[in-house]
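Student: Hello, beginner here. Can you help me understand the protein record under this note? Any guidance would be welcome.
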Amino acid sequence: MKLILEHWRKFLAEEDTRYDKDGNVLPPLPPEHTTAIEEAGVVLKRFLGEGKMGKVYEVENPKTGQRMAAKVVSKWTPQYYSESKNYNWILKNRDGLPDDVKEYVVDVYKLFESSNNKYLVILMELLKPAPKSVVNQIFGS
């Protein structure tokens, strides 16, 4: 539980430093990610996290002020093919899903291929962590 709450605290504190699972500081993000995100037409705000499929950033549409998540996936990897297929399916089919299912599927706004042909940028709904009161109820404070 401490690990979950620690990640939640770091998210709310909007720290830009990346940490591994043991709390060690990770190296800076690849500058190519910043370029790919900017090419997608959004402004990088901060790093959110990373997993097996890619790195996720909070971004903002400079025209509308809308905050979103941008997942950056390296192309020409098994993860790229999986993520591209899955998010394209969501982009095309989410609106046709039953309402009771749709609420559990993230909104996908745009898939963008970087000009250097190295990255897929997936712009999607930015999910916020649950309020502390909800987390306390779930984990029994």
About this structure: The longest helix spans residues 78-93. The chain has a mean pLDDT of 80.
